[in-house]
Structure formats: C-alpha cells, structure tokens
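Follow-up to my earlier ticket, as requested here are the two runs.
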Amino acid sequence: MDKKERIVLAFLFVISCIYSFVMPEGSIEKIENVPEITIFIEGAVNTKLSYDHDPTISEIFKDIHIENSYGFDENYCLSSQDVFYIPAGEQLISLNSATKEELMTIKGIGEKKAAAIIEQRNQERFQTIEDIMKVSGIGEKTYLKIREQLCL
C-alpha cells in the first residue's frame, strides 16, 4: 500500500469518526421494545388477540363481546402464547362444583381421575379449563378430548 492510499484511508476514517460524533440525536430514532402479548382464543370463539400487557379474563371477554357465563375468575391474568378455551357446549360440567358422579360422566374420566380432580380443586380452585392438566393423569391429549364438556 503506497503513501497516497494510506492518506486516503486515514482521511476516510477521520471523517467517519467525526460524522458519528456530530450526527444530531434527532436523526437517530429510538426503538421502543413494546412487548406483544398474544392470546389464542379457542372453542366458542376462535381468534387471536394481542396486548401490550398481560390481559385479564375480563378484558378478553370484553374484547370478544361475550358475557362470562362460564364461571371464569375475571381477575385472572393470562400470559403470552396462552390458549384460552371458551366452551361451546350447552350441557357443561363444572370443574369447581361437579360431584364425583358428574365428573365420571365425562368419557375418559373414571373414579380415580374424578377423585383426583376433586382433590386438586380442594387444594386450589380451577382458574381456567386448562388447569385440569395439573391433575395427575390428565395430560394435553385427554384435555383436548374433554374440554368441550367443561366449564368452571
């Protein structure tokens, strides 16, 4: 590299350094990271809602224009990527108040699982239908089969 090329490179380097220091702040846009909380609604309504905060169930029902007649705790907050299931059936079985015999009418729920559901709700009331997956022996596969018959 000869002397002229070195001078040109040094000159360009100095110019770029000066420009980066004197560039007005107004021309630099500030990027705000606003989190987008996405909630997937399934069942009676199938949609996707986006929020800038963790929404409560009350907000969800307000935004989809449906009355909460299912017994959901309206103060319960959902998190991003949650799937919120709203039952579509008419003869629903309440997770928070059904008897053992009523729970056993659900296909796939026998005496032991019904007892486990009652034990779980005695420890902590169900806030969402998805909470049934906290019961030992009820995984996502079983939940997906029975969720249409459940309410809170």
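Run two:
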Amino acid sequence: MDCNVRPATESDVSFISEAEKSLFVDAWSKKGIAEEFTNEYAKLFIAEAGGAKVGYCIVIESFDEADIVRIGVMPEFRRNGFATSLLEYVFEDGDRKGIMFYNLEVRKSNSPARALYERCGFLLEGYRPGFYSSPKEDAAMYRYERTGN
C-alpha cells in the first residue's frame, strides 16, 4: 500500500488525539495537540494510505537539531513501512532546514520501535531510568546524525 506523508493541519487534531488514546498510556490531550500548531518550533506530519490516515509524527525543531517527541501508526496498519515513511519525510523536511541531529526516547521494552529506529540509523545513546510511568520503565535514548544532506 502506498504511503503519502504531508504536513498536518488543524483539521488533523481529532485523528491525532484519537490515535494518541489508542497508542499511548500517556496520551496527549486534544487541547495539547492543538496547541502545537501555535508552537513555531513544532512540526506535525500525517501519513495516509488508501484514503485513510494511518499515522502521525510530532517533531520539535531547534537550530540544527530536532526531537521526535511522538510517532505512531495505528495498529491495523503496522508493519507496512508507514513509520519508516514518516521518518524519511521528517528527515527530508529537516534537510531543507539544515537539521543535522535527531533525538528520540522510547520505552526500553518496545522492541519493534527500537528495531525500526536502529534500521533507520539511530544509535542508542543510553537509558534514562524511570522516565516512563504507567508502568514505570526506563527510556532508551536514541540519536541520529544526518550526513551528506
């Protein structure tokens, strides 16, 4: 299934909010997501396939660095390359702005996500003990450096 990634608009807030609730125990509120559209450093992206919204990514940019603070693909659409497409789009968008470094944190136990990030070139930098709650868990911290952009 082909994937199209595009910048999110305020009309995507409901989808992102519903996705958050189904994907994360620490889901962002609809209001919090909407507020990101007023944050000049925040960039939100939507992945679509077959006419459906299948995933999203929220990135906070600062100078030559960006934090991928949220990325999610709806469970019924996983393992189709949509998360990879989202990351590739984020990197291409960042290339145009001179972003060289990307950081993200993920639950230590989230092996599928960690494998994805490592396939995409992220390197494990270390662990942040007890970062997550519900349940309490360490965060694996990853960093990716763009070269040749």
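The only thing I checked on run two: The mean pLDDT is 93. Let me know what else you need.
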